[in-house]
Amino acid sequence: VKADISYSIKSHKIGVGYERIDPQYQTLGAYYFNSDLENYTLQYAGTMWKDKMNLSARAGVERNNILNDKDDKEIRFVGSMQLDIKPIENLQLSASYSNFQTHQRVKSQFDYINEFDAIENSDTLNYQQVSHQADIAASYQVKQTESYVHGIQLNSSYQLCADSYTYSDTTTANQMLNAMLMYQCQLVEKNCTLSLSLNYTNSNTNINSTHYFGPTINCSTSFINKTLRFNASFSCNQGFTDNRAEQFITNLRLLLSYTLMGKHCFTLSGNGQYKNHQQASSYLVNSSISYSYSF
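The structure assignment produced for this chain is given below.
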């Protein structure tokens, strides 16, 4: 059950909300859902500072064991916030926070960067209960002309994944921080985009602490009225476990696709990876050809 009532006045909206999920709640089509909880919240959304800032927030209390049939019962404060600010024309800032419990597929950004076969583990269930999440993003458009656009982006995300309703020193938990700084140049007349990014991930559990960092270079362009597309990327990153160097990985990816008559798409892709893990090293290469039809 989920219900909301709100009242709007000019550019502001206030309201109250109620949500209840029964114990043993199940549904088809999804593997994980929250269950056995109930919350009451106050809500606000509005614009201010001459429409340069948007703010939305929810805050209230949440409890589990709603049928009072268990030994443990928890009542906690819950809240979420989303803030977007555009102080000047070329600068966009955003920040968000939530401690509402969700189940998500939690992966480091380097799991995607170093992914060799995109469908190899596509059915793997890697969902965790996320109890705290915070995100910060900033983008600044350095310069824009008819020929090119230069921009800088900064993104950072923090997640606390716990296996219990509340977090304590004895809780099995995973804290993950992902950060990325990227410079991008778009050559408008040539339909070409170049980017250089620096990536960093830190993951801490009760067992160990891991760090990954490294750069990624990407180039994408198109020809013949955007029917022929080409993309190339190169990345390298170093991984540490408890401050000990564990592995060094480089990746090279190439993709060429051609669209015929707007419906037929032919794609040729290749991927090469070199991995040096302590005293062992390996080279992996794969390629694929695919065809798709859209209607």
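Interim note for the steering committee: DSSP finds one helix and 16 strands in the chain. The mean pLDDT is 87.
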